[in-house]
Design a protein that fits this description.
188 residues; alpha/beta; two-stranded antiparallel ribbon; 12% strand; elongated
């Protein structure tokens, strides 16, 4: 989703996410991380936090991408999704997603790989839980937030000052004169 504080925008974008919108099967976390870095750069955020939600990764470029993002000031944390034993993926309609050989695609949580990424990204790792403790842990770590207190800047957006009502008050006497015949001539 775009960087925004508008929950409705985020919700509307999340509703349409499903596996079939992806051009190919697989995990290219490096491309997603690069996109996140681009979005932070466009927003003018020099030191941002990226939360990656994944079960593992396949691309060799992922580790170097995380190191690159961390070197320019971003911190990458990961929320691990899945089980260590693995389970077949569903397509959302109850059917199992299959690979090209018609074998079920198994999602297995690769915790050691993800922890390696987190170490390179300077963030933290948590496995997904049914309560909010995982998110609270990822978002509210005092030792991580303490180092960012000085450098944190609020989300940059345009703040408009509405001065229209003051202008209207100044124009009221002229509006009243507009109802009198010949007022422009008397003003001159």
């Amino acid at each position: 989703t775009p960087l925004t504080r508008d929950n409705e925008t985020i919700s509307s974008q999340l509703r349409v996410l499903e596996p079939k919108i992806m051009p190919v099967q697989g995990s290219r976390l490096d491309l997603g991380l690069l996109k996140a870095g681009d979005l932070l750069k466009q927003a003018g955020v020099s030191a941002g936090d990226i939360l990656l939600i994944a079960d593992g990764y396949q691309s060799n470029q992922t580790l170097s991408t995380i190191k690159q993002l961390h070197s320019i000031g971003h911190r990458i944390s990961i929320l691990g999704v899945g089980t260590l034993e693995g389970a077949p993926l569903s397509n959302g309609q109850g059917d199992v997603i299959r690979d090209n050989n018609q074998n079920p695609v198994l999602a297995k949580l690769e915790e050691k790989q993800l922890q390696k990424l987190v170490k390179a990204g300077g963030g933290v790792y948590s496995r997904i839980r049914p309560d909010n403790k995982d998110i609270d842990y990822l978002l509210n770590l005092p030792e991580l937030n303490k180092e960012r207190e000085v450098t944190d800047q609020p989300f940059q957006q345009n703040q408009w000052k509405e001065n229209g009502p003051y202008l209207t008050i100044l124009l009221l006497p002229f509006a009243a004169l507009a109802f009198r015949r010949g007022w422009l001539l008397s003003l001159l």
